[in-house]
Amino acid sequence: MASEELARKLQSRLVATWEDEPRPEPVQSLAQPNPQEAEAACGESSSELSAKLIRRQDINEGNAAPRLTRIFNPYTEFKEFSRKQIKDMEMMFKRYDTGKDGFIDLMELKLMMEKLGAPQTHLGLKNMIKEVDEDFDGKLSFREFLLIFRRAAAGELQEESGLMALARLSEINVSIEGVMGAKDFFEAKMQALSLGSKFEAEIREEKEERKRQEVEKKQRQAAFKQLQSTFCS
Predict the structure, then answer these.
(1) Please, which of 2, 67, 70, 153 could form a disulfide with 174 given CB 3.0 to 4.6 Å?
(2) Is this structure's pTM higher than 0.85?
């Protein structure tokens, strides 16, 4: 009983002390939250989550197919170009991809065109990207960069366009080597396919070249040994 009475006295003393102390004024918030906006944002989040859950359930039940991530292979998709040409294009792309993010944005394209000696206006640069920007992200991926040379080789670019200037000044010959000078891309593609895969042919040539080098090396070694034995005898 004594302990309960002591506890009540301590509690009443703390309450009296707190009431006597001056209370700080409430801080006004700079931006009061709008209940309607908060409710709308919450509704959008829940709707997005519901849509994802429904799609996941459909995939699990076999009612929908999962989205497949496409793996880009320039050698198989751009068969009209040789392996060396694609490597040259890749080197050029990486040279101007100063951000090293796998894309050439507006400022990097601006620098590229200035280095090539064909500077473009801001609107001109945006139009260049827009012409091959298949995913509408406002920048060039390596695949979209290759599309520039495909369209140039097929004669699909206007002579005065920025993309044509890029393809012409890049020092990568695609109008002759790439599609054998054919103006119609599909005709050139059929010609390329009829000759077989250029990529596979170049791989075979590289292997044959290494074999020839090995044979020549062995022949030089045998000739040296023969000459050495002649002097020692």
Answers:
(1) 153
(2) no
Write out pLDDT tens, residues 50-83: 777 787 777 777 776 665 556 889 999 999 999 9
Instruction: Report CA-CA distances (Å) from 88 to 96, 124, 146, 200.
Output: 13, 25, 11, 18
Q: Please give the distance of CA 96 from its chain centroid, rounded to a whole number.
A: 13
Beta bridge partners of 140: 104
Query: Which two three-digit tokens encode residue 96?
Result: 């101007």
DSSP per-residue codes, 77-99: H-TTS-HHHHHHHHHHHHHH-TT
Cβ atoms of residues 77 and 192 within 8 Å:
no
**Rounded distance, CA 57 to CA 72, Å?**
29
Q: What is the pLDDT of residues 138-152, one digit of tens each?
A: 999 999 999 999 999
* Residue 18, burial from CB neighbour count under 10 angstroms (0-12, 13-18, 19+): exposed
pLDDT at 119 over 80: yes
Residue with tokens 């496409």: 70
Bridge partner list, 104: 140
